[in-house]
Specification:
The chain has 14 helices and 21 strands. It is an alpha+beta fold. It folds into 2 domains: 183 residues, Rossmann fold (3-Layer(aba) Sandwich), CATH 3.40.50; 222 residues, Dihydrodipicolinate Reductase, domain 2 (2-Layer Sandwich), CATH 3.30.360. It starts with 5 loop residues before the first helix and ends with a strand.
Length: 423
């Protein structure tokens, strides 16, 4: 595993309770973080500590990733860092003769002249272009296997296989009622996931897929709607956001329309619009005067540096996060059907059980389940594939099965939900 931040740390902690693997090498550019994760496992699960090893690796160097993987006879490389490192980890895994999993795909590039109606380089295009190389090597790259993308794609496959005879729209809808407070108890603005990635997702032109039209883009934060989220989260303003599901689902599933909308809420949407207006979402370095002379800095990196590390916020956070897929169409009985399939992660529970913030923990759960299905040969494939390419029923059964019966004990639900467009 490359990356021992919030998500990587949670992946290791979840895996420590499972017995499907022989060794997990937890690596990070900061070896202290990797050692801290393993020390937690040794304290909480001493019987599992011998199956974990800490290492230092530079995620930007594919050769070092390949060497580390070969040194330990690694069969699967998990990418648990920011998506800007996808190309190097992806290459390093293939060079090492290992399978690969990630939770976010290679980055996009907007259309050079018409970014708000046409796609340029889409999320994951670079990885899918290399699928023949992976197929030739007999290796699997399972891409987008987090929570969204990941569990959302599994839900979509399940709905397509079991619940609908014809699908009008598959719409990923995620929202939360998380509140972060400082040590004095005052509510503060502190995103619970990487602000760098959030800006990338939310301020790039979102992509929509429609039957007959294919992939096209709209302006950032477009098509607002109010969506009613379950378990007390309630109604949230959702807006279109660039996300992998829209690139993945149409490759394997039949639907007339595929969308992704994020329940950011009006405050967060306003902040993102302000960052965009001020140019603070840009990644191209700008020259800044300092006491030591002019220096080049990335505005987005400055924003990220000025906010708390999301992996440190668990103890200061309350609330729940919900990931799900809203599906409309014709049910297997021939009648109109509209469902929301979802999973909820409660920060109080994830902190008590894993000392992991709930957003990171929910993202971490799904690659571990996928790894177990791959290890037990319940999921088999080669080339570059998304979660939709595999049997969703097996995933969801293992996920929901009680812990004392060999499962993960994480229930998921199907509920009636309806989105309300904002005029």
């Amino acid at each position: 595993m490359v990356g021992a931040g919030g998500v990587g740390n949670a992946i290791a902690k979840i895996a420590a309770r499972r017995d499907f693997f022989e060794l997990m090498v937890v690596s990070d550019v900061d070896s202290v973080r990797a050692h801290d994760t393993i020390e937690w496992i040794a304290a909480k699960h001493p019987e599992a500590a011998g199956r974990f090893l800490a290492a230092q690796v530079d995620a930007a160097n594919p050769d070092k990733i390949a060497v580390l993987a070969r040194d330990h006879e690694i069969t699967h490389v998990i990418n648990a860092v920011e998506p800007k490192f996808v190309p190097t980890i992806f290459t390093g895994a293939l060079d090492a003769g290992a399978d690969y999993l990630d939770m976010a795909m290679s980055l996009s590039e907007p259309h050079p002249s018409d970014p708000h109606s046409k796609t340029g380089v889409k999320l994951g295009d670079d990885q899918f272009a290399q699928s023949p190389d992976w197929e030739k090597a007999g290796r699997l790259a399972l891409v987008g296997m987090g929570v969204e993308p990941g569990l959302s794609d599994v839900f979509a496959r399940y709905a397509s296989d079991e619940l609908f005879s014809e699908i009008d729209e598959i719409g990923t809808r995620i929202g939360a009622n998380l509140v972060v407070r400082d040590e004095a108890g005052n509510e503060i603005f502190a995103p619970t996931f990487s602000i760098w990635t959030t800006i990338e997702e939310c301020l790039n032109p979102p992509v929509v897929w429609e039957d007959g039209a294919g992939w096209f883009t709209t302006p950032p934060l477009s098509e607002p709607e109010v969506f009613m989220f379950p378990v007390g989260i309630g109604p949230l303003e959702c807006v279109s956001v660039e996300h992998e599901e829209v690139m993945l689902m149409p490759r394997w599933l039949n639907a007339k329309r595929v969308t992704f909308k994020y329940g950011l809420g009006s405050e967060f949407i306003g902040i993102l619009k302000t960052l965009n207006r001020l140019g603070l979402d840009k990644t191209t370095p700008v020259q800044v005067r300092s006491a030591d002379g002019p220096v080049l800095v990335s505005p987005r990196d400055v924003v990220a540096a000025g906010l708390p590390d999301p992996s440190t916020l668990g103890a200061y956070t309350t609330g729940k996060t919900c990931a799900g897929v809203w599906v409309t169409g014709t049910g297997v009985d021939g009648k109109p059907r509209e469902l929301y399939l979802y999973h909820v992660s409660d920060n109080e529970w994830t902190m008590a059980e894993y000392e992991s913030q709930c957003v990171a923990w929910q993202k971490a759960l799904n690659p571990v389940i996928a790894l177990e299905l791959l290890a037990t040969k319940q999921w088999v494939g080669s080339g570059v594939l998304g979660p939709e390419a595999f049997d969703a029923g097996r995933f969801l059964e293992l996920m929901a099965r009680p812990v004392d019966e060999g499962g993960y004990g994480q229930s998921w639900r199907i509920d009636e939900r309806k989105a309300t467009p904002i005029p």
